[in-house]
Amino acid sequence: MPVKQMTAAADLADRYDIVVIGAGPAGMAAATEAASHDVRVLLCDENPAPGGQIYRAITRNRPVAFKLLGASYAEGLPLVQRFLDCRADYAAGATVWSLQGAHPESEPEIGLTLGGSARRIRAGRVILATGATERPMPVPGWTLPGVMMAGAAQIALKSASAVPQGRIVLAGCGPLLYLLANQLSDAGAHIVALLDTSDRRQRWAAIQHLPSFAASPYLRKGLSLLVSAYRRIKVIGGVQDIAVSGQDRAEKVRFSTRKKQHVIEADTVLLHQGVIPAINLTSAAGCELVWDDAQHCFRPVVDGVGRTSVPGIICAGDGAGIGGARHAAVAGRIAAMTATTDLRIGTDPDCARQLSALQRRARYLLRGRRFLDLLYHPAPQFRAPRDPDTIVCRCEEIRAGTLRQAVGLGVPGPNQLKTFLRCGMGPCQGRMCAPTVTEIMAEMQGKSPAEVGTYRLRAPVKPLRLAELAAMPHTPAAIQAVAGHAPSDFQPNRKESP
Known about the structure:
Layout: E1 4-5, E2 15-21, H1 25-35, E3 41-45, H2 63-69, H3 71-74, H4 76-84, E4 89-92, E5 95-100, E6 109-114, E7 117-128, E8 132-134, E9 147-149, H5 150-160, E10 167-173, H6 175-186, E11 190-196, H7 203-207, H8 210-214, H9 219-232, E12 235-236, E13 241-245, E14 252-256, E15 261-265, E16 268-273, E17 275-277, H10 280-284, E18 289-292, E19 297-300, E20 313-315, H11 325-344, H12 349-365, H13 369-375, H14 380-383, E21 391-393, E22 398-399, H15 400-408, H16 414-421, H17 434-445, H18 449-452, H19 466-470, H20 476-483
Parallel strand pairs: 1-4, 2-3, 2-7, 3-4, 7-20, 9-16, 10-11, 10-16, 11-12
Antiparallel strand pairs: 5-6, 6-7, 8-17, 13-14, 14-15, 18-19, 21-22
């Protein structure tokens, strides 16, 4: 029985046994596994089709696109097809803007918008599969037209086979940068140079973990990407600073190495310095976060099977720590089995054996992760920009110099900084500035990012129209608060007249 496509908020049930948020590899695997255990499942995702970022548009791309995007992209087809064949409700184009964990007298509750209407639904368990987001790379000129994050360019390539025209410069560090360089080259793009900004001081530390990477399933793919990129593209390592300049759009990229200053003419500049867990919804739900020094980011605290510190909420995939698409799919199945076991208040021996096998597979797929984290460790000058005119918060247009002045006044943390500058209070809710703000404060205060912390978020974590809120079914408590009394004929699931 195929998934049931939900297109309007009113079509959703009041309660599901399991709600999965995110339709990437972790979310699809979680929904498929959960549905096989005869429980009622809902998967909601912002995108119009399943796949997430890694398998974006996989259900409608032509064979030529699969050849262009590579074998790792094609690996998502069976995963997507299994999900589309499972017995689950699927809400594409849904925005989840609120999440509350379980309480002694209530289950987890999700606030979402679907088809232009908002509503709340309850769940026995919620599985967060929100995936990763690109680490911001604020450099002078990064807000100019023609400059974008590498992930955005890859979205365009996967969704519409769109390839930037003219001279392209890629800058930053991380495997995705080399993957995209090869994909764009195969698509006929004119790549002038790839500027590698990796922190070379970490290379010796990375080499110590090379044996683990050599025993991982990623060695051949990683070597192939590097060899192909170096053969076809001018790769410049040891880049210490970058600035993009131009009148109305990007025209030139200025950078320096140990030896000298360089200038390259460019029409498009793609920036990237790794990915980090997308924690906005996790944070807003009150899940405990911890600083991961290896991956240099905050992530939720989870146990061995994905349970967070908030009852009823489980986290899987890159949203719980970067591990890649294959690991995310396995982690999604683990999370689903954890959720179904928790709901049944018992342990099926077969389920326990399957769970153990999945955990072994997950550990195998994490082999060599430490090597990659160190090899592509972002350099400090790119994590905490020193040029005072560099914009850090794009929503509120807060520059690094202004931010450093406010920190110098004795602001204790990122959340207090909001009251000074509104940094992190725009539509993105800090997704594009939170890591940079933490890094700058840590540098200036002589602390670790773990001590500085990051933004605390509240619902709604995504933009929500007042009309959507007003159209939600009213509770007796809400009517009592506004009118002073609740009507005697109140029906909880009936919309009240305005």
